[in-house]
Amino acid sequence: MTTTEPATGKRSGPDLPGQPAQASAAAETSVFDAFKDVAEREGERRRLHLLNDVESDPVFVDYRDPKEQKADRKVATKIRKAERKRREKAAIDKIKAEAKLAKSHAAIDKEDAKEQIMLRRAVRKRRKLTNTGSHLAATYVRHRLVASILGAVALAGLVWTSHGIAAALASLAGQATPAPYLYLVEPLFSTPLLAIVIMQVFAAEKGRLAKVSPIKTVLRKGKTKRRISMIGYIEAFSLVSTVVFNTLPAFKAEQFALLDFMSRFFPPLLIVMATSLLYVAADLFGGVIRDAVLEGDDDETKIRTRIKKANIIARQVQAAMDDPEAPMKLEADGLPSVAEIARRYPAEKLVAQAAHDILALPQITGLNSTEGR
Hints:
Layout: H1 19-55, H2 58-61, H3 66-130, H4 132-172, H5 185-205, E1 215-220, E2 223-228, H6 230-252, H7 258-291, H8 300-322, H9 338-344, H10 349-359, H11 367-371
Antiparallel strand pairs: 1-2
């Protein structure tokens, strides 16, 4: 490669013949050499660029020999195995979480069901405690239960006593086995007692137990005294007769046996106690049922009926207060108490209170005028 010196404009020597032609040829040669040098450099650059492209080609860059490929497969296998374990663990955890959630929901549903049951029981209990109809129904059920128990006890005592009296009469007659008709002796004495008890139960339910009570109250010389009524004498006669007939064999035996005597003495008492408690229960529960006020009873018709009934009872009480043969127990204000009025007449306590208030008015002559109000 040759280089040429640049022209300076000065002449190096005298112009000789043929010298301009030589200078032109030298100049052309210098330009050609310059172009050739540039072409060589451009060719080298292209070669190097092509070589760089070839060397950076993915075919050569990503080329792996068999050993490297085997190592890559091992790594990929480990990665896929780890990924499978991860997915398996995630699936199992998801199933466990869903099962735990379902179990929690089931437990909550169970608690909700229990709460609903307790709520229904609590509402039923509250209804029984607050509803007047439930109170009345519960009182009636208790009355039936007590009456059934006492009736069963009285019936058991009646059967026991009937057998004892039949055996006693058979032993007095020298019979080993009582005749069937001997079992009818005890009912002859018990039938009046049962009739009295039925009347007492009915009277107690109607608030008129004093009319069939075994004890009556009389007024003598301004003092109240208690006397045995005809009902009381009949009950005492039935009890004494039954006890005598039933316990007579125990005294006629060769040797007195206390156990035999007690087994014959207590059945009649059992009958009397059971029947006495029957009308006491009827008086108690009958009064509660009679005085119970149901929801919806205080309508206009009911109030007018109570006013009329209170006026009628007030006149009856006034007449009883003026009757010396059937006196009423008076309080310090000269009037019978509300309980006495409710006990003697079949009326609710509210009606008895109204009758008592009417009697306490300054003038009782207004009873007839207030009846139709």
